[in-house]
Amino acid sequence: MEWLLPAILLLIVGYTILAYNKMVRMRNTFQNAFRQIDVILKQRHDMVPQLVATVKGYASHEQDTLTKVIDARNQAEQLRAGITTDDAKNMLALGQAEGLLGKAMGGIFALSEAYPELKADGAFRDLMEQLTSIESRVAASRRGYNNTVLEFNNVIETFPTNILANMFNFRRANELEFDDREAIQAAPKVEF
Amino acid sequence: MAEQSSYLLAANARKQSRLMWGLFLLSLALVSMLIAGIVSIRPVTGATAHSSQWLIDWQAFIFTSIAVAVLILLACLWKIMTLGSDGADIARALGATEVTDENSDPAIKRYRNLVEETALAASLPVPAIFVLEKESGINAFAAGKSTDKAAIAVTRGALELLTRDELGAVVAHEFAHIRNLDMRLNLRLIGLIHGLMGLYVVGRIVMHSAGRSRKGGQLVFLGIALVILGLLGAFFGRVMQAAISRQREYLADADASRFTGDPLALAAALKKIGGLQRSGLQEAVHDELEEARHMMFADLSGKLSGWLSTHPPLIQRIQALEPGFNPDTDWPQVQAKPLQK
Prior knowledge:
- The structure holds 2 protein chains of 2 kinds.
- Chain A is mainly α.
- Chain A has a single domain (4-186), classed as de novo design (two linked rop proteins), CATH 1.20.1440.20.
- Chain A contains 7 helices and no strands.
- In chain A, helix 1 runs antiparallel to helix 2 and helix 2 (63-81) runs antiparallel to helix 3.
- By secondary structure, chain B is α+β, with helices and mostly antiparallel strands.
- In chain B, 62% of the residues lie in helices and 7% in strands.
- Chain B is built from 11 helices and 6 strands.
- Chain B has helices at 2-40, 58-83, 87-93, 106-122, 156-161, 164-179, 182-210, 216-260, 263-278, 288-291, 314-321; strands spanning 41-44, 53-56, 97-98, 128-132, 140-143, 151-155.
- A 4-stranded mixed sheet of chain B has the order 3-4-6-5, with helices on both faces. A two-stranded antiparallel sheet of chain B has the order 1-2.
- Chain B is elongated.
- Chain B starts with a helix and ends in a 20-residue tail after the last helix.
- At the A-B interface, helix 5 of A face helix 4 of B.
């Protein structure tokens, strides 16, 4: 029976190695997915000044709507720049800021209905197409990220992997939720 | 949820693919043994005076069945190899032009965006993007054997006549084909049909040479058997290909509407195709496309129906997406724009 102890130890060590590697792979996967969102959010933010400049040319006295968009954009960009996925508070704030920005941009889309010249402007139409596309990319990459995060969290919070996760300091990642469901559905419908 | 159902669909595709291979191997074995039987059977007279006996020469039987099986397999593989696996090559051969980054046409930009969005949402690599510039009807296809060598193409008519949501639904339909590996399934089916047609060709040669040899009786019989088996096999292969293809179209429609969450957009695109068909504007301009009819989003003319048709009837596809659709009154009027050549 003297082989029993080493055999059990060997099993435990083998399992630990496998589980550790799996958790590392999953962490890399969701971090990669987050970088993808980050790139797209940056694109979204970078488009706002262009959009505002174009709209100003046709609807300069809609300052209220435009200021709102710029403010929302600046706040979201600030949060995006300093974000880490394991900071629950910041992730929540970023989601809210992006949601606000979506709503504010929805205001511009709605406004364009009242300005036929703006709507007919080629540059504006290009921007609208670009924004519509970015909105659906944001939605898709967010869904992808949230799925990978869910898988990762499931592993590090269930037994027995939670013990190892604790030992090796794997920390719960946070999903990115926008509270803008109606805004995304209502805003970027562009018909040509 | 959407992810889950597409996993199911992909599993379904693999199951269908395995079933097809099973059937193929079974028919391969049957055909080979039948032919080997004809070759190796010998009448034996002598041992008992009155009754002549039939004996099988087992060595010849095994040898011939292996030879026939190898012959069919080779013809099948050769066809699959020459059909190629690179989607972009197939698209080019069908007269499509690749979309480049610099293209500033707003319709093409929108299309490009849609493809990239869908690829992102489906976690698939972005396929090579093509346009069939000379086609004024609404159509699309996906080509390529694997997800990382895929190409997607739509007609100029689809770019001009569909709204963003409708075009997005068509793109999602093609992505469903790419993801479900339908092109590979179809390629294998074509290879199978070709392999069976190889039997027919060999049969013709055997019959021809048997006519000249002296002990031709058995050989002529063999030739006839080969010709009949080859033709029958190819015919049933085509029926099977069409049946599978119809099924895959429904699946791609279902997959696409789950994917976009908007079955009505896909229905609207199909309705526009119906509207074009009714005014005779949906016909393909390019002859090359006729060869690829099984790959297209919609049937090119709607002439073939029933067993050999590769697409379900348009009306049934629309009704699967939009149950209230009434084919007597609900076709949209579509103004086809003439294309500058």
